[in-house]
Design goal:
The chain has 609 residues and is an alpha+beta fold. Helices cover 25% and strands 19% of the residues. The protein has a seven-stranded mixed beta barrel.
Length: 609
């Protein structure tokens, strides 16, 4: 058919899935080809798993444990000799539009979401990724693109529970290739959560990040496995989430040797950033000019996350980053912001090593953020800020401490635990006669992460950072007691210098603030509102507040920042605070909030959005 005719051939669909049939999906389903070119397909739900390892009811329950995405198109669009799935490695490098022969029409449906809403839209579909296109992987990445040539130019749907954005231009369906059973090289180490964990950490760090879900995917009624779903990184996504027009953003990606890195906009500002970083950054004017292009906290947080995970397949590749072309006061993206991307070969799943002591802090990749980091450490302001962020995340329950890192990992293990049953039935036998299961290598690897990686990695990372002189060998900073959290009104907060001993004396005094202000001003001087801490006269908490403290040496040396948030009551949760009434008429409008818990809760910082 002509391409226009192919677009017209996709009609509005409404899919019904009968789980009693799905769980017994045959090896040769009616209407599907027995070969994809010279490739042998795999369609079957493994009878050695369904009813044998997991009961039929367990498998059916697993298939309802995550949202459902259904794709419907002519089988030939995917599996004929010129189909995009058959030719999974084919790419039109000069075209990313509907005229590309490797993009085909599809009807996509979203249903079985927690909010109960459903939607159908006609769109385009194409293959996505690099290594995941390998023919022996069979379960490939795909991308759905909403274009007016097919149907709506955007998807309007609540795809992610944790995001207010409900308008999407393009969505990636990721197979978890480098952290899954479909990759023969990592099959025994697969967790299905490594890339996702990096995104969770960015969210906890309160850095720009991409929302994500797991979903069960069906193609023309056949179950295709558990997929990782998130937006395509592009200017349209940035505009929707962070404001501005599409033309206001430079959106960049990795390519070999950083040659063709532009997704949208251009790369002139990025290359200029690296040129500016090569100058003498101990000259404050040079450093401040560079700061027009660098979001310091975002860059450091991004690096620390990848240093902690020892992400081996990075920063020469597997990056997405963006910047506003014209800065906007107080907005995201005034300096380059980095997004976690394809971070599978990390932790105990490294490319060349799976050791607790893996080290990528030594990276200085030309045109990578590691090169900017290496250059910027020459400046004392950056050097101190780096140490500030290390203290924030690697001590006192920060996201990269053993307990917190394990807890963020557990968020995802709990999320995939039941859906993995469906994945096992569909793909567990792809490379082995004895199928992979949740209770097999997956659980063994999870135990290694919890027994080896999380308990020991933070200390290893601190040593690696000290070896690079990114932080002092014996890092010192003010320590609060108690360290934040819920306290009673009038509670006294004592302070001491962490790591200060007779063998490692720290000069200077502790200065603190009680309003979230850094005791150190931007020019390196003592803030006029900072208070000198006196033993025997500790400050008392009279209302919810953020306290910050540094050790200040009169010669001008500052310690890293100690920071803690104190509450006079528990913070609200979904189970403790409800909107119980919304009232509107011509004379009076109000929203009533009700505390449904059995304790006082603290509304400081709560917003209605």
């Amino acid at each position: 058919a002509e391409k226009a005719g192919m677009r017209d051939s996709v009609l509005r669909t409404q899919t019904y899935l009968f789980l009693d049939d799905i769980i017994h999906q045959p090896a040769e389903p009616e209407g599907f080809p027995k070969r994809w070119g010279n490739r042998i397909p795999d369609y079957e739900m493994d009878p050695e798993v369904v009813g044998a390892i997991y009961s039929e009811e367990e498998v059916k329950s697993a298939l309802r444990s995550a949202p459902t995405i259904s794709l419907v198109t002519e089988n030939d669009n995917l599996f004929a000799s010129d189909g995009i799935y058959t030719n999974s490695q084919a790419k039109d490098l000069n075209n990313d539009g509907p005229e590309d022969i490797w993009e085909r029409p599809v009807s996509v449906e979203f249903f079985d979401f927690p909010h109960g809403q459903t939607i159908q839209a006609n769109a385009g579909i194409r293959m996505q990724g690099n290594a995941s296109r390998n023919p022996d992987r069979v379960k490939h990445n795909m991308r759905i693109i909403f274009r007016s040539v097919y149907g709506p130019g955007k998807l309007n749907f609540r795809l992610f529970e944790d995001s207010e954005v409900e308008t999407f231009n393009s969505i990636n369906l990721r197979s978890n290739n480098g952290d899954s059973w479909i990759n023969p090289g990592v099959r025994t180490r697969a967790q299905y959560i490594r890339d996702q964990w990096h995104r969770v950490v960015q969210r906890i760090m309160r850095q720009p990040n991409q929302s994500q879900i797991y979903a069960h995917l069906y193609i023309n009624g056949l179950y295709w496995g558990m997929y990782h779903v998130f937006e395509r990184f592009e200017a349209a996504m940035l505009s929707e989430h962070y404001g501005g027009d599409v033309d206001d953003w430079d959106a960049l990606q990795d390519t070999p040797a950083f040659q063709d890195i532009v997704v949208n906009g251009d790369d002139k500002a990025y290359r200029l950033t690296h040129d500016l970083a090569k100058r003498d950054l101990t000259v404050q004017g040079n450093y401040e000019e560079l700061l027009q292009y660098v979001d310091v906290d975002n860059q450091i947080d991004y690096l620390l996350m990848n240093f902690y995970s020892a992400n081996q397949d990075w920063d020469h590749k597997n990056m997405r980053y963006a910047r506003r072309r014209e800065p906007m006061e107080g907005a995201v993206g005034n300096g380059w912001v980095y997004f976690a991307w394809d971070s599978e070969r990390a932790g105990l799943n490294g490319l060349n090593s799976q050791s607790l002591t893996m080290n990528n802090t030594t990276k200085v990749t030309v045109l990578g953020p590691s090169a900017l980091n290496a250059e910027m450490h020459d400046n004392p302001d950056y050097h101190l800020r780096f140490a500030d962020r290390v203290v924030k995340y690697c001590f006192n329950g920060g996201v990269l401490t053993p307990e917190a890192a394990a807890a963020s990992w557990k968020i995802l293990t709990d999320e995939v635990y039941e859906p993995l049953i469906g994945e096992s039935a569909r793909w567990g036998d792809l490379h082995v006669s004895r199928p992979e299961t949740r209770e097999g290598n997956w659980q063994t690897q999870l135990d290694k992460e919890n027994e080896i990686w999380f308990p020991g990695r933070t200390e290893v990372l601190l040593g690696q950072l000290a070896d690079r002189d990114f932080i002092p060998r014996k890092i010192s900073f003010p320590q609060f007691e108690p360290f934040g959290g819920v306290v009673e009104e009038g509670a006294e907060i004592t302070m001491k210098v962490f790591n200060s001993t007779v063998f490692n004396p720290v000069r200077g005094n502790i200065y603190y603030t009680q309003d979230g202000t850094d005791p150190r001003q931007a020019d390196g001087s003592l803030h006029p509102g900072a208070i000198k801490y006196e033993e025997g006269a500790p400050p008392a908490i009279d209302h919810t507040r953020t306290m910050m403290a540094r050790v200040y040496d009169p010669d001008g040396d500052w310690s890293p920042l100690g920071e803690a948030l104190f509450h006079l009551a528990a913070l609200p949760t979904k189970g403790s605070l409800t909107i119980s009434e919304i009232h509107y008429d011509a004379e009076i409008e109000f929203i009533e909030l009700t505390n449904t818990s059995d304790q006082v809760i603290d509304l400081s910082g709560v917003q209605i959005s």
